[in-house]
Write a structure and sequence with these properties.
Radius of gyration: 18 Å
Structural class: alpha/beta
Number of strands: 11
Strand order of the largest sheet: 3-2-1-4-5-6
Number of helices: 9
Largest sheet: 6 strands, parallel
Order of helices and strands: EHEHEHEHEHEHEEHHEEEH
Strand content: 25-35%
Distance between the termini: 21 Å
Length: 218
């Protein structure tokens, strides 16, 4: 089923994200006050010129029906806060907000952002793949060039133990924990991995490593 993704802000990150998501097969709604930017974006997204700090503008643009909304405003902290709050008020279940600093990120979480990212232009492509392929996004740039991400178990190591998979040696990433579906709790539980643990097809791996290695393995 095609996902409907809303993006607020058409800076470098927002534009790169919108184009990547469109290429991944998602329906993208992009909104920004900049008319020339929206004219350029209309080639690959449903581009709307408008003020996302106004709740009725987002509602009329269809953001309430989006599966995920990314608030890609980084420089104008007040606008990003208002846009984030507006999306949660509209009932959007998954709001991902771009932050320009740790303090900005804390404020965004306080007002309802489900996920906060600190991305550069290149990481927009990784975030696009995460949104297109997963129900939830778990991506965090820890420092320049290094990230923590949630990924599916690579096909070639499914059914192998963590020791047999040897992901650290083969891919350069470290498995921090496993999110595994529990029939008893009917939800995912966190497993601290042991070398003898078998990697199952439905597992989600929380991994750490260089961003370029995370790109390769995902």
């Amino acid at each position: 089923m095609m996902k409907r993704i809303g993006i607020i802000g058409a800076g470098r990150f927002g534009m790169a994200l919108a184009e990547s998501l469109t290429n991944a097969g998602s329906e993208v709604i992009l909104i920004d006050r900049n008319r020339p930017a929206m004219q350029n974006a209309s080639e690959f997204a449903n581009a709307i010129q408008g003020d996302a700090t106004q709740p009725h503008v987002l509602e009329e643009a269809g953001f309430a029906e989006c599966d995920v909304v990314v608030v890609a405003i980084g420089s104008n902290i007040e606008a990003s806060m208002m846009a984030t709050a507006n999306c949660k008020e509209l009932g959007v279940t998954n709001v991902i907000a771009k932050a320009s600093s740790e303090l900005h990120g804390k404020i965004l979480r306080r007002i309802g952002a489900d996920n906060v990212v600190y991305p550069d232009r290149d990481s927009a492509h990784r975030l696009a793949r995460s949104i297109a392929n997963h129900d939830a996004v778990d991506f965090l740039q820890v420092s320049e060039g290094y990230s923590i991400a949630e990924i599916d178990v690579p096909v070639n190591v499914r059914g192998k133990t963590l020791a047999e998979a040897d992901l650290r040696k083969k891919t350069g990433v470290t498995v921090l924990c496993i999110r595994r579906f529990s029939e008893e709790k009917r939800s995912r539980v966190v497993v601290i991995p042991q070398a003898s643990d078998t990697l199952l097809e439905d597992d989600k791996l929380i991994v750490f490593g260089e961003s370029k290695h995370l790109d390769e393995i995902s």
